[in-house]
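lol ok so funny story. i was supposed to be doing the assay writeup but got distracted and ended up predicting the structure for this chain instead. priorities right. anyway since i did it might as well share w the group, maybe its usefull for someone
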Amino acid sequence: MVSKRRLSKSEAKESLTEDASTGKQPLSKKAKKSQVPDDVEESDSVFVRLLKMSGLTLKTGENQNQLAVDQIAFQKKLFQALKKHPSYPKIIEEFVSGLESYIEDQDSFRNCLLPCEHLQDEEASMGTSYSKSLIKLLLGIDILQPAIIKTLFEKLPEFFFENMNNDGIHMPRLIFSQLKWLDRVVDGKDLTTKIMQLISVAPEYLQHDFITSLPEILGDSQHADVGRELSDLLTDNTPLTVPILDVLSSLQLDSDLLAKVRQLVMDNLSSVRLDDLPVIVKFILHSITATDALEVISELREKLDLQHCILPSRFLASQSKLKSKGRASSSGNQESSGQDCVLLLFDIIKSAVRYEKTISEAWIKAIERISSVSEHKTFDLAMLLIIYSTNTQTKKYIERVLRNKIRSGCIEDQLLQGTFYIHYTVLKDICPSILSLAQSLLHSLDPNTMSFGSLLYKYAFRFFDTYCQQEVVGALVTHICSGNETEVDTALDVLLDLVVLNLSAMRLNAVFIKGILDYLDNMSPQQIRKLFYILSTLAFRKQHEASSHIQDDMHLVIRKQLSSTVFKYKLIGIVGAVTMAGIIAADRSGPSSLSQGRADLSDEQCAQVTSLLQLVHSCCEKCPEASALYFDEFANLIQAGKLAPKALEWLGQNIFSDFQDAFVVDYSAVPEGDFPFPVKALYGLEEYSSQDGIAINLLPLLYSQDFAHEEGQGTSQESGQKSVSPLCLAPFFRLLRLCVERQHDGNLEEIDGLLDCPVLLTDLEPGERLGSMSAREHSFLCSLIFLTLNWFREVVNAFCRQTSPEMKGKVLTRLKHIAELQKILEEYLAVAPDCVPPLASFDLETLDITPHTSTAVSAKMRRGKIGGRKRKADGSKTSSPDTLSKEDNSVSKEDNSECDPTPSDKSRDKEMTGKEEKASVLLQNYHAFFRELDIEVFSILHCGLVTKFILDTEMHTEAAEVVQLGPLELLFLLEDLSQKMENMLAPSITRRIPFLKNKGSRNVGFSHLHQRSAQELARCVVQLLTPMCNHLENIHNYFQCLTPESDGVVDGPAVNDQEYHVMSSCYQRLLQVFHGLFAWSGFSQPENFNLLYSALGVLTNRLKQGEQDQPLEELLSQSFHYLQNFQHSIPSFQCALYLVRLLMVILEKSTSPAQNKEKIASLTRHFLCRVWPTGEKEKSSISNNQLHDLFCIYLEHTDNVLKAIEEIAGVGVPELINSPKDASSSTFPTLTRQSFVIFFRVMMAELEKTVKGLQAGTAADSQQVHEEKLLYWNMAVRDFSILLNLIKVFDSRPVLHACLKYGRLFVEAFLKQCMPLLDFSFKKHREDVLSLLETFQLDTRLLHHLCGHSKIHQDTRLTKHVPLLKKTLELLVCRVKAMLILNNCREAFWLGNLKNRDLQGEEIMSQNSQESTADDTEDDTSSQVSKSKTTEDGEEDISDGEEEQDSDEIDDDSE
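and the output, tada:
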């Protein structure tokens, strides 16, 4: 028997395996009998006998028990046999006792737990192949189930510590599996108790299995009990967290219990293993309800920090490259395991946010509520991207959240880079959605948002696969071809970065980029330059066969464009050719662009470059503008230091002689020709003898091009093709000096004669002949002056960095010549405003550029003022530098409005007042016609400023060699520097181009500047801070000394001196430059932190020297203190506003600005209370926009807005009312009748903003809080009442408009913020509440009168606010009534009808007197309160015999 059992052991195991895995029937009964004929259990017990009677035969050993009948039939027969047995119910105990005896043998017990074997002849009648075990069949019989369960639980502990059998059977799991999926559980509560007791004593590995099996065992009625038991177990046994949470997610439990368990898990979330995280997060998300979703998600995102889980494995993987293969594979497995867990976690989260709208919205809101930059995590950004990809309904919401976060600086480059670095395995699956988001962000007008969108493209290309890279390039090409200037610029910058980042990957997508060549028509020169740089890099760097097709296409496009006669297309060819030549002839000798090593060009490359440049030169000879553009482009290429020495040598052989032949003549040679003006050699810096010396041949060249061309078109046209246009003088010289400078390491001795040589001109002083000149002569002389100015500008550009005192002196002399010529030019332009000067910048899309006339400018200024007030009605904190400069210009223009725009016989002395301001305004309109100054020119600022006072006392003692920088030259340099900073450092959103304006016009005159980066310009300005501080302090001393000279009167005789205005303008420009520097957004980037520290260190060292490595807060505090010291010498209101804005910018960078914030409030109040100098005829020199901004800053920084408003409205305005017509308030001299509307509008706006920001009270607040808020509202309503009553005196339309607009907003804030407070304060503070409502009643009645006034005067600007205001007042009626009913005081509420009255309280006579109600007898306080509340809008307004009822409430409530 034993041997037979052993022989059949393998077969039994095989049969069991097949039965468990495939569900197939075991071998047939007959086949088994042939192998093991005698294996049936022979026993006479009740247990065996009843089973056999019911159709089941027990087998011995390891053979399966055989079932001869259907399973259901067996259970039915056995149940009937037990039920009808004579000894029932005792027979059950005997049956179970027999079972217990039978299963004492382990093999028999195992057979009872394994599926029974069906006989072959029964297979056909069976509907299923699944067969149950004997124990499972017995558990399906209700009368046996409790006893069988008890037996199993008594038997189970015997196998707790046994290992798995050789045949792969694990007895504890097998026993417990018998309880799964029972058709019916007789006593579920008892079963639950037994299971939980078993779990408490079982080994840990079995506890896990038992717990996870609970949902398959218990019925729904037991879920609550099991949930409570498991939650208690969770508290005591942390290792079982995962199975318990897995089970709790499958049970139907009470929400309170789930919340309790969730909080328990959440508290331990930061300490769980990464492998357990998916199950835990799944449970937390499963247990969320709509009411607590936001709270739970906020806590979850705060405690879920995947960065610390992923980075260690990533670090190990990176370190494994340096170790052995075995260790590398080990760390790789660790990384793979960690990544699998993270992927699983994100799959769970994706599923939750996709199918649960509550979770997705709560997650977005939780991220939206984060205010601190440091609290944002990479996980937050990853979640926003995931929700964006999974839920289309929330895309707009997520975009809005992202835009707000980006604008506020909460999401920075480092956070986005970290997100891709840590979560790239998750993000690569949602690449299309990321690109869609990037495309949407790139359409934004905000530069920070566009930068974020470009970074999305960049990181997607860097971290994702080849397919995604192709999609990125395709999306960028689409942006470039869109025609939107900012999109094109941003997309080209991204492509440029990608080419540098991964040239080989970009070369695979070159065919897409090459397609942009078909869309060159709509691109600016700078964009064309970038595109050709990208294509040239792909085509010529690290050449291989795949690049040849790009080279061929580029050559075809360039040749085609160069051969065009249209300048726009010729420009494309020139820019493309020079850019391509620069890539081919790039200096590859070292990492530095300035290095001049021996790794030079090959002969083939050199021939390619020279042929290309000769082609450009030959195609541009007949077009002066094209030649000038070619010279400028080539000069920029040399200045960037990217040309190899061999190419420079070829260039230097030709350029020097060409320039000399074209523009330089001997000083002694008298030019021949019939010139309309006598030719003189002017502006020479050295005395030349008649035998030697050179001069610049300017007037004869201009005459040959201008006058001679018109007199003899046939001959001059031929000669014009050979001669060089004077347009090319400055560009050609720029190319020459850069070539010499590069070849001789900055030494310009070879061409230093051009610095001091004279220019062939004529006498330019206008004198009396100005009025008698013809228009052509005017135009000729204007062009001559422009060309001379541009020549001097290029000379200053060239020699500004020469170190010898002699050269510095000559450069300063040239600056003085520029200042003199600008004065002369302004007089010519005043007579001939329609003159179109010769071009100075040539990278233009069209040559049809005309200067703005002064009339158009002034009209634009006037329109800008009105629009500015409307835009700033909300009291914005700052305005753009562009706006302020326009305001300054408008003010300067107003200051000089009394000057005659045309020359007259008046003496020039009378016109000198404000002359500099007038010149700056006029010449600013001609900015595009002046050559651009390089940023190196500003090194001249290191020269000292010698003012008039110092010259009067020290001129006789100074040596002649001392280099001096005069006020006019200083102003010239500062104006140019401020324009460059405004163009380069100011946010583009503040300098947005108006609709229908030429998109490239803003950058005209800044093409050389745009070859540099914003960081370079900022670094240059930081280096200039020390000399600029010197100039600032000198000017400060000048004005400090000036006040005693004027006998203490600010507006004294010295104020009208020309020097005063020049120094004031210098003061303003210096503050403007400081503000532009410190307001630069680039300081927030980590790579520029050191630059910020350097800048603040310069200001700090002006106070105390020697301390190094001071913390940022100390530097900011010292810098603030240094700049604050200048407040006592501020000469003009514009300077005051710039100083305040500068201090605010310093303050914004501090983490604890409270103390300095009070200083700004004090400073702005000082400026508002100061008497400012005015001109001789105008009433005020203060711009409305500037006054608006300064007053807004004062109210925003003062510690008590309500007190400040009450002081101005209650003290300053009454002083103004009682003063003469043209006088001002004595306390606030800036408050005049003209400026009252500015003060009124700002006070109304700030009052509404202040009360709107006050949190509505709640009943849970303390009594003290209620009293404080009630007192605050009393003050606010009192201020509101004072302001409203001012309209009885100042009833101009702007005042009434502000009153209607902000009056409605104040009432709305009262409804939302104050009425809830009154609801629960009425009983304890009845008198205070009634007093508040009584005061507010009078205000709302005045608003009602204002509505009637607007209708009477039929002013559409006012009447458009009336419907909304009346609706708000109606809501107030109902709300007050509800408050009184809530406090059981309804009798205090009654309703009447108001008469229509005007602002003075007089009745509007169009209303029928018989329909008026008793509005005149309001004595009782409560009646007065209630009446005011209900009748503000409940009037009956009868006009032209037609009755108009404004409130439906009246019909219901009035008697």
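The longest strand covers residues 1436-1439. The first helix runs from residue 2 to 21.
back to the writeup now i swear
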